[in-house]
Amino acid sequence: MAVSVLAALAPSQAFAAPQAPPCTKKNVAYLDAQDRQEDAEAKVTVAEKALDQARADRAKLDKAAGFGDQLVAYMQRSDSSKVRNAVYSVHGGAYELHNAASKHDPVATADAAVKLADATDKALTDAGVKDTPEGRNMRAGTTKLRTLAEDARKATEAPNVETRQSELDTARSELTDAAKTVRPARDAYRDCLDKLVN
Q: What is the dihedral of CA 72, 77, 80, 86, to 10 degrees?
């Protein structure tokens, strides 16, 4: 009776587990290091965009407050004594707007801007200059202030500039650490391959 080929082999030869190609572990370590670096780079990109948005939103609050100051300053420089006298009734509103913006509060800034616009319109009406050329010019200013108020109300990331900056700093630090592991892993893999060839 012929002996089968499998029966002729030793058990260790017939059922031996397949061996991984040489340098497989080095290759996997290198690929893992690359993956970590790419993930870290993606986190940095996301963090940069978040910080840009927070800064842009904060700028909207500052713009509303700055325009409120300009509106009051315009009234102070008016040729009309009635308009100059009306400044006293709106000066507090400008301060409230500036204070809300300095606290990076979108809702408070928007509310204060609308309040200042309302107070300015009322002051112009009470002074009897609402329909004069200067009054119409100033009312155009209050209309713009209301638009800036709505922009400020939507600027929800304005309070988060410092937090987003911290997140970006952390992401950049993680990227630096991840990048440091790539070259050694690559060099170890290359050295392994060189030993196989040489």
A: 20
